Amino acid sequence: MSPTNRRSFLATGAALAAVPTVAALAGQASAATSTDLPDYAPIPPSALGPAVNSQGYYVGRIEKNLYWVTDGTYQSAFLTTREGVVLFDAPPTIGHNLQRAIDEIASANGVSNRVTHLVYSHHHADHLGASSLFGKNVVRIGHAETRKLLARDNDPARPVPDITFEKSHTLRVGGERVELAWHGTNHTPDNVYIHLPDHKTLMLVDVLLPGWVPFDSFNLNEDVPGSIAAPAKAMSYPWKHFVGGHIGRLGSRQDMVVYQQYVDDIIANVKKALAAVDPTPFFVKYGNNSWAAVKEYQAAQVAYASAPVIKKYTGVLAAADVYTASTTFIILESLRLDLGVDSQVHA
Ligand SMILES: [Zn+2]
């Protein structure tokens, strides 16, 4: 922090008034009723997908014999072939509705409804927890690291993949082609790009959630620089339809462009905050309680950086006012710790 950037105590104090105090938070400890809960901006209609049926799912065609299923929060996809069905992820929230959706499409088209292959996007239980519903006679395909992580987790709901790959794998079933590739760590160490070139579709889970800002704390991404780099890798593929694994609709290339701009805007505003927010008053106020000083200083940086982004994207991306601040904090820490932004060497 250069002294020329320091602001007066008065100005920073005014900015801090917006940060809730410990006393105010403690007052919320009792059970909330819905009238006590905070209000958020309305969801833009563009964020919403088709309505689910009475059983709680929607199934629709993506392109030709490729379909997608959603419960409004999670997504899966499947490819019907002359030899059986290839399923992509098995979220437990969709659960038995996966087979119902497949049955519905298979009977309408007179093709097999038997799932013969199950492709794993990454090891997380919220996308694979219904894998075991498909039994032992299904060929499961995933990254080598997915196999390691699932062996570690030892969850009977998520059997380890039978076929693994390190860099890439072409899956051919019933005359259809699926290109699987690993391009470095991002959301998790094992998250892969699932490309169906003959169906103009890319599936990449937990990166772009079309129409919405990322889930809490930048989608809980384990590798923040790797996750920031993922959209450009996704855009290097030819595709028209995008399956993001979450929320109620498919994505487009334009959705990816908006998402990249959103992340770039957070990065640019974090850099501004690192230069603009004066740490002095926090350390003066909290003395030897270093954590209190750092906590409040960083909260002020996050508020400074996220406010213009929330303003810009409210009405554009759903829940910009809900999760932009927590994502900003994660990106702030990554810029400091991974990239060394604002790092100062003691004289
Ligand atoms: Zn995940």
TrEMBL record:
Give the signal peptide as a residue range, or say none if absent: 1-31
Q: Which UniProt keywords apply?
A: Signal
Enumerate the transmembrane spans.
none
Query: What Gene3D superfamilies does its record include?
Result: Ribonuclease Z/Hydroxyacylglutathione hydrolase-like (3.60.15.10)
Question: Do the record's keywords include ATP-binding?
Answer: no
Q: Carries keyword GTP-binding?
A: no
* Domain Metallo-beta-lactamase as annotated: residue spans: 73-246
Q: Name one Pfam family in it.
A: Lactamase_B
The protein's name: MBL fold metallo-hydrolase
Q: What is the species listed in this Swiss-Prot or TrEMBL entry?
A: Streptomyces hokutonensis
